[in-house]
Amino acid sequence: MADHRRALVTGGAGFIGSHLVDTLLDRGFRVTVLDNLNTGLRCNVAEAADFVEGDVRNPDDIARAFKQTPDIVCHLAGQASIRLAWANPGADLNVNVVGTLNILSAVKEHQTPRLLYASSMMVYGNPDVLPTPETAPALPVAHYGVTKFAAERYVALAAEDPEHPVAVTSFRMFNVFGPRQSLDNPYQGVLAIFLGHALRGEKITIHSDGEQSRDFVFVDDICRAWADAIDSPATFGRVFNLGSGRATTVNQLCDAVLRQFGLDRSTFEVNTAPAQLGDIRRSEAAIDAIAKTLAWHPEVDLEQGMATTVAWARGAGTGQ
Ligand SMILES: NC(=O)c1ccc[n+]([C@@H]2O[C@H](COP(=O)([O-])OP(=O)(O)OC[C@H]3O[C@@H](n4cnc5c(N)ncnc54)[C@H](O)[C@@H]3O)[C@@H](O)[C@H]2O)c1
Question: Could you tell me the pTM of the whole model?
């Protein structure tokens, strides 16, 4: 049944945001996208969504996006690269923190009742406990993790405003992957970077010894959690990890990507380079909280998700 509420998805032309737009449209929401097309693509945005080209750093652009008053704001617009944040912390701060504060001002002004925010596992830094629960200390070791955590806290504080009650939920997403993740952006998404290289026949570079681990979670699973949370009061005022709950080393990832193309390291060049600034060593989500609260479990494992992503990548450019 159609849901006549409107969702505003900031960053809705990007990788995760555009899939969330599709999920929300499928569930009957009307959708507005606000995106400055910095890394996002106009062709990622479903035709049924209203598109506002604009920047979360600019309150006038946000005002245009709020013209069709949203009932829900899903805030994903952000600078998503650890390396670019390291190179230019001020720019990262402006987009991720000032941009979020601007969105919160608009939410307050328009009395928007519901806000969901795209936080990151980078808030944990190098955690002592694996799999890492939400109760672990936030000790980010990269500028990007600092700004995602600051924004997450600003979002939490917005919910405390007695004059304007807004129900907020933040998701600390781990390494999300799937179709539409950029295959040629060297700054974000290790799986897509490897995939792009394998597809183009360019050597793969592994930073550090490759034994660092990541938790890869498929984008459809992520969007289901976001959409299910919208009307779940048990998620209000809370922060949840969204990951697969499994650790994969970068070496394992590289071999799995090559397998998708019928290759291995004897037939494809893989070299190593020093670790990058801000890289974390081990990452694995504890997902008990979201499992208990939303009955959410990842449904697509790494091999399945990778096969889907490779099929998309082979025909990339179709905007599918
Ligand atoms: N991909 C992951 O594994 C992951 C993990 C944790 C958190 N996140 C967060 O999820 C969100 C989406 O990430 P993604 O992987 O889809 O990256 P993405 O780069 O594909 O998406 C970000 C989107 O935001 C837009 N954007 C950037 N700056 C903007 C600005 N100033 N104003 C308006 N729009 C702007 C971009 O054009 C892009 O469409 C980001 O906030 C990111 O920090 C991503």
Answer: 0.97
